[in-house]
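Dear colleagues,

As part of the handover before I leave the project, I'm documenting each prediction I ran so the next person doesn't have to rerun anything. This entry is a single chain, and its sequence is reproduced below.
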Amino acid sequence: MQSKSDELSQSVSSLKGIGPKTRDLFNQLGIYSIFDLLTTIPNSLSDKREVELLSQIDDGDNVVLSGEIINTSRTKGYKPNYILTVRSDTGIFNVRFIHKIVVFLNLQVGMSIRIEGKAIKKSTKLEFIHPEVEIIQKNKSLANILPKYSTKGKISQQKMRKAIHEAFIRLSKNYEFTCLDILFNNDFNFMSLLKAVKKLHYPDGDYDDAVNEFRNAKERLVLEEIYLHKHELLKTLSNYSGKPSYLITTEQREINLFIDSLSFSLTKGQQKAIDDINQSLQSVNPAKFLIQGDVGCGKTIVALVACFNVVKNGYQCLVLVPTEVLCNQHFDTFKTYLGSLVNVVSLSGKDSKNKKADIKKQLKSGAISVLICTHAILHDDYLFNNLALVIIDEQHKFGVKQREKITSNHERQPHIIHMSATPIPRTLALVLYENMKYVKISDRPNNRLETITKIFNSNQRQSVYDAVNNHLRHNTQVYWVCTRVEDNDDNQQSIKSFHEVIRAQFSNYKCDILHGNMSSEDKIEIINKFKNGKIDILIATSVIEVGVDCPNANCLVIENSEMFGLSQLHQLRGRVGRGHAQGYCYLLHTEHIKNDSIEKLNYLSKTDSGFEIAEYDLKNRGSGTYLGNRQSGMPDNYRVTNINDLMDNIHYIKKFTYDLASEKISILKNRWKIKKVNEIQL
């Protein structure tokens, strides 16, 4: 099998008829190897059943016709046309080529052809411009169902099919079943990879039956790709379970007293998460948790109680956050509730060398029990005395390599809790992280009211100003979000120019700005002034998306709201309604908004659940990146699978076993170009 697999991994240029130029065109389509070519999924199946009567065809119809070329002509001029007159069984029609006509000059009188294209009908004349053309050879029938491929105009359908035919001959010659062929067939009665490729590219029989077979074939490829990626993912994650961790005993009475001392009551979701974590920590097996919860569900308090339990056992905790703003906020929270018990310290890139050196000493000696820090800890060697728990907030900002650096240089493996407010379908998390314990906090504090969301056209700006004025008169603070820091030519309002507009419009109130280009000190100063009520209107970019908690800010205005993704809009909306009062979100959009964008905003205005919003976004936007190096879309090295494929096949995937030896599937990983997992995005 080794030589056969290696042959499929060879360049497409090893196929007959593919030279350097054509190879480069295939490469531009993401097709490099023979296997890439075979796993190129057609974007449609064309039903080649012909229209019986030309008189049945209307202008604009997409139809299939066949006939004999009875005349050809070439117009004169700078851009000549090449015109075929074709006689079918029921009449005459014309085929016109208006560019690159040299390609079609081989079509001559006496040849029989089949065409598919959009009809242009004027009176009794019927014409097709640049239809797809097939030559009907004597004693050879054409397929009635033909796959069509997305070639972006770089390669003709005919050339694509010819190349796939050559590749399929390579695949089918002396094909041997792979370990996944056997596993999938034995456990799920799935077809082999060979049969799947055949059904994709050579559908036959009744059209409806062919479509069903096509779907089954694509599913077979999808499941193999998912299996191989998950196998590689588990191999990477296994690095975390090589060493024992700390056993954390749970004194329930002390935990209950600590929870009772909080100024609020826990939700059922928070309590369940706490109980699950405490139970898992009572083992030397390193616990790995993914806590997922919507904006404002109270994940921080769950982390706080977990830290309380750990420090009461005499061990250290690390809370890792992606921004200095969030670091500062978490430090205030943890200091408030744990500061009287243990030493809580913050660390960020802006801290002085002396402070960092002092923190190093205190961590090593055990004098610091809880460290709240940013990426700064990754850029130097900070050694802990007995680090028992690592909490990674907004975990989609950190990759596997970064986590390894944090957790690998200890005698014992710390327990790890990942927290994510980025809403993704729970099914996806279960598929990819089933070896982690997954906790979803679906409820929110009882005193939280659902934020009222309203949509305004830019022509209705005065109505928004009036609404904001009303909020300000009732001593409510306001966030005003813009898309840009600097002015540009794209009609999107920038913070700098809009600041002047708002100051003039609300001259009796204090305004200030906040954006990502500001220094850390300035950001923290502005946020503190806003939280202390010294700023009435904070004009900001999406930098406020995480790490800003001001219970008195219950009004949010978002300029050019159609430019944001649904989940980001929901995250921004989560900045208001965090206290007892009603929150309001006003979405301003430009006058010439697209239909799908207004539908997106309308959906957001009616839905307050981040999980429902994420599912809606997936269905309408397609695949997003939850693995790989980007934050939206599937990873770059997924060939055929998207998020919906994961969701649709969850019932199969959850039953997969991953005990096949790596060497048995290394050939398959090479075919699919499965890369070592360096990033895991949530």
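The mean pLDDT is 85. The longest strand covers residues 62-74.

All the best with the project,
I.
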